[in-house]
Amino acid sequence: MASLISTVTHADVNADASVKFDMYSQAVPLSQLMDNFQGDRVSEGEAAFSRFKAEIELEEKGVRFSIFAREDHLYEFSNSTVDLIQMIENEIAPQNNSEYNLYLKNSTFKSDGVGIGYDWALSEHFTLKGMANYFLASQGRFGDISGYAAKSTSDYSLELNGQYYDSEKVIDTYPVNTPDAEGYGVDLGFSYNPMDQLAIDFKASDLFSEINWSGINQIELNRSSTKLLNPDGTIVRNNGETNSTNQTYVDRIQTLPITYELEVKYHPIEEVLLAVNWMRYGTEELSELAYTRYFGPLSIGFSYEIESEAVGIKYSNGWFDLELMTDSFSLEDTNRLGLYSSLSYKF
Known about the structure:
Elements: E1 13-25, H1 30-33, E2 47-60, E3 63-77, H2 79-89, E4 98-121, E5 126-151, E6 155-166, E7 180-195, E8 198-229, E9 235-254, E10 259-269, E11 272-281, E12 284-295, E13 298-305, E14 310-316, E15 320-326, E16 336-346
């Protein structure tokens, strides 16, 4: 979706209330992610994410104050991991002489918070922007699991190893533990207007971050097994199996994935705005082409996201913005879904 970075007017007090919801899955439709990968494989892909943020921000003379709630989920994985999970969930047997390199990394974060920032105009054309955020986190999950699986005509083997941290209960036999977490995040960016028709905005969100979890669940997973098979694929016997999952309570620091946003805007004429947007979240990159037509205070915009092949439409009347983006009109086939809405008031 289009970048939410905008040029601040240093006059009066500007109030802005916004909601942003953003989801993307490379390998399978979003509906499959919510339904344990039930369904057919769509394409290759090694990442999926969802992000939600509701925020109220006040700005006066370059000083900004915000209060917000946010929830972020980022998954990075190998293609083989998705293949094997889909086979298991859809009860499909792996083919003979097949190998799967398994990898899954997760970063989940849910928090309320406040932020304070300042926009420092170094010249008429260049402004530095900074924001310091305080987080009071209610959910966190981070870490990775790796391994391999292989199937031949005579046996099936699996090995998994990993260590991750989860603020929620993982093993039923362990007592419930509700960890506390506070932390900070720093956003930095700039706006550059070399000429009246051209503007360049850049922002790095969570460029520096630390979430200090006290008493979070640490899970260590070690699993290996080999099963001897009959020619028809049925199990003859287990030929060795190790399965250990240990949970302890530890103090750990969670670092949030950095989001980079770049927006280049150009007015060939006063009524038309052309824009190129680029975003990187974790290892995932998305780029977008956008066109906006102004009719006085009203504007209608259209956009196309290259990697996801999603299209977007945007409406603005000066105090209300609404933007929608999707790659399919069928929810069952949607890999990309975005919604942004804001209300602005100056007093």
